[in-house]
Amino acid sequence: MTKREQLDELNNYWRENCVCELKKTATQAVFGNGNAESEIVFIGEAPGKNEDLKGVPFVGAAGKFLEEMLTGIGKKREDIYITNIVKYRPPNNRDPEPQEKEDCNLWLINELKIISPKLIVFLGRHAMTRFFPKEKISKIHGKLLIKDIPEFGKKQALLPLYHPAAALYNGGMRETLIKDFKKIPKALEKIKSI
Fold this sequence. Notes:
Elements: H1 3-17, E1 33-34, E2 40-44, H2 49-54, H3 61-72, E3 81-84, H4 98-115, E4 119-123, H5 125-131, H6 137-140, E5 145-149, E6 154-161, H7 164-169, H8 171-181, H9 184-192
Parallel strand pairs: 2-3, 2-4, 4-6
Antiparallel strand pairs: 1-3, 5-6
Helix pairs in contact: 1-4
């Protein structure tokens, strides 16, 4: 089976079997999207209103900014894979709660295992704290981290960034995010030499 076929099978399984309470209020599950063979996976927090309606992650204003930053490093949306910690929209776009993250966790872990990316980029603190629960994004954003992930059975390269939505509300954050985003190609080069 190809990685795409494995992801389709995984998504069909979890669409039926996920016990996340958000399933009751969301329009639909929002599966990861993009190139299943990508060496980079971006992980966001949860679907918003536009994502819930379209069934695709990062299609609103934050998604447009993400695409702009991808262009800045010579990539297109089709080159990467993007998903969320939680697969269903929280009501009124509130932060996902710990139990909701836990209910979608195996789905995410299996998604990442199938793709087996060289680099995982966290978009925001909710994605980051899944793997670094005690860290503050303000301290480690833009820093390449290598961590043993027991579920993966290997060391994984991880890069925490602020969420693109943060730049929409705070102009100063925009420059920080663009600067950090430009570290992605360098991070990939560094990983190859490890």
